[in-house]
Amino acid sequence: MLIVDLDFKHPNQEMEQIHEQHLKFLKKYYENKTFMTSGPKLSANGGIIVAGNISRARLEEILKEDPYYQNGFMEFRIIEFSSTLVSSDIGVFFQEEIV
Question: Which InterPro entries does the record associate with it (predicted)?
Answer without folding.
Answer: Dimeric_a/b-barrel (IPR011008), YCII (IPR005545)
